[in-house]
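pasting for the record
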Amino acid sequence: MTEQQLRQKVADKMTSWVGATKGSAKHAEILKIYNDHRPLARGYKMKVNDAYCAATVSAAWIACGLAPYTGTECGVEKFARLAQDKGIWVENDAHVPKLGDAVVYDWQDNGVGDCTGAGDHIGIVTKAGATSFTVTEGNMTGGKVGTRTMSVNGRYIRGFITPNYADIARALGGASIPTDTAPDTSGKSIEEIAKEVIAGKWGTGTDRRNRLQAAGYAYTTVQAKVNEILGGGTGATEAKPTTTPSASAAKAVAAEKFDRSLTGTYIVTPNIGANVRSGPSTAHGVIKAVSKGTKVSNYGYYSIRGGVKWYYVRIGETVGFISSTCLKKV
């Protein structure tokens, strides 16, 4: 399967549900696909009367085999944070999305500049274009699955989730590349590989996932062990900023790059806040959790992981890394 075929497959799955209403057979299909998937996001099983736009996006990606690479969610803002952590989030209203990408909306957007509010709604691009695109969404007005046409850089766009369809298509087409649920077959223990990941031997982001899978390791299993070692729990991603620093996060590693134009004061933008980490990825331990609106200072230093800049910041006496997707310059 090619990248474009996979994108079309996702778009076709979404459009097959157009016309669904809460309690209908198509709605039941969406909920079944979502609820039967493991791991179930946050352990929550969707109910008939729940808002289901995020679950619809998840169900389409589950049905088409993308879930190990995109993650799944039933909450819009949490889906955006999950995408940020995975390095597949585009923080740019003017981005021109491709078929199969997800669009996150913020209904409180005033239309001036890039929107940085909380996500309210989500859908998948089912027809792409240079100046406008069509989005298919679950839980539109009246609880139905329907479509809307959006202008590129239009009002209410919060951001985009952009899975790496090329890499995913290659992974799905190669029998030698395991999914996250496949057994680990290489000779080293998961703990040994996790320690190598922490030491930086397996890269970051999508590159790390691809290299681990190509070597015969299930990515989620390894990542869970990494988080466990670093004190971040057993999940591959975090649901919310923690209030307890991990033991391994006492001191941040050095930043790798410098750009004078980045120097300045920033505020934390997500409603649920952000984590200050000891290194430039979610695999590093949490030094401190900060709330929305917290001001941090950056002196131009940063690192890049998975295509995302992680700023080296100071908050009082605390120094560490915060993803640039969680910050706005003031």
